[in-house]
């Protein structure tokens, strides 16, 4: 049972993702929810309680993309996307960034890149805390409060260490700005230090966020697992996606790793209204999001098959004209199915 | 009268910067202040009131680099560097990023890059506002408060528009995260809109900070002037420096554009303790900081000469072995002096 959520302007990539999913889990039960720009325009609704209640009954959620220029900035992001992340306690925002063979990086001399960013998903500067005082006067003050709790930081740091411990390089980098954001920085540093005691096998590094953006373009191969807060994670994962070939390929998971709530998987790219309806959007990130979803549900073998099929397709496709949305989906589905038979 | 400030571990680049300065302003009176790691270790002092008072009497300040691994992270940054920026009301943190001909970018196919980031310097998440509650308990909460005032935002936005209006492309990009940081985002957006009415000749764009990091590696040529807050500016300018050949070349000005306080110029790079004392640090960023300093003091012709000399040297130098610190300084000084004579 997968709750499928999309904003109506880019069903195309999701259709292909489901095509691929059908090859490995033909019996998947899918419920479709039309949330997003179209619904908001028609009814003013963003995320009705009843829909949220139904979504909670699903094993996982696949999200297409949210956002449309016809909706004022922030409405859908906060009322739908962030609301889901917060309501469903998606504290681990998982964003792998891998430079697949065959994919062109904007970097001149890219090394092997294979990192996972574990971005905190339920607090930090995203808490929505802050306000405006004396609005529209010369004495206006706007505040934004980043809230970091030991509960919130510890659970995401634990998750990041566990992921690092399970990877060949076993390396974890904390990214923050501890020399300026001293309060939050102190908490993050102490938690990483404490949890590291239980993982003597994982090497730990620290980088300021500004320095991390430099290394992301000069030496991205150094990163294995990165753990960071909600805002730094937002910034770094877009940059990591860019150096590994673009957000057209980047998948992500918004996860409640306690499994009390369904986790939600989504391509990092937006709804790309400029190319919507033309049938040319690349469904690869949506397909890779399905792989993350299956992995989370324990379907490791199917997940690996999808990822291997994507890797094969990226290594062999003509990147100048990769084909229409449906054609890429067909190719990936065929690869997965042959993989299922022979693999 | 230039107050010179350095932390004792990297006087080398400053010596070369002064060598070059001497070619254009032989009569410059220089006062040297040994603040930084060595002084802190010896006396526990970071920025004595008396020194701050003396610095206020200078026309401008040239800062070498602050930071040493022997000093706990944050001490020098907050007690010295940020304290100066805040005490001297350095609200315009000016960071040009230009890809000079001959300089190798980490990007595969770099376009022409010539941008100026105007980073707010006295508020935002750098205000030092926040705290720890229930420290070292499972219920600990750490907060960081970003403070944005219409006074603070307006003066930096006005400065950015004025700079954009004076450049050939006349293009200004506001970078923020208005869809999440809605309070601060609202203030920044409204101020940009208001000020733009007085600059119909300047085209205005908006980008979320995460998207800006993508474009910084896929399409950096699009940027002319960027205006942004203190933290986003910190992140973006390191990234902009990286794509234009590294922070070894990046200069910056911390400016009180009202001229009530002396402005402070510094290379963006740190004190690079790993190569200190070896005579191999590249003084180019320090020399370019002198050019910014002179420009600020109205010595536009001298400033241009220095920049042209740097551009010539970068276009013609052997980037594999650019020479020792003093040798680069000698070359630049000679270029500037021949420029002075012939230019
Ligand atoms: C759309 C926006 C609210 C969102 C975020 O900032 O988290 C997006 O940038 C992302 O990274 O998923
Ligand atoms: C050293 C640090 C406090 C400083 C900052 O964050 O502003 C530095 O990164 C910079 O950009 O000048």
TrEMBL record, chains A, B:
Residues 1-332 form the Isopropylmalate dehydrogenase-like domain. Its EC number is 1.1.1.85. InterPro entries: ICDH/IPMDH (IPR050501), IsoCit/isopropylmalate_DH_CS (IPR019818), IsoPropMal-DH-like_dom (IPR024084). It is an enzyme of class 1 (oxidoreductase). The keyword Calcium does not apply. It comes from Lentzea indica. This is 3-isopropylmalate dehydrogenase. It comes from the Bacteria. Pfam families: Iso_dh (PF00180). Keywords: Manganese, Metal-binding, NAD, Oxidoreductase. Its cofactor is Mg(2+); Mn(2+). PROSITE patterns: IDH_IMDH. GO terms for molecular function: 3-isopropylmalate dehydrogenase activity.
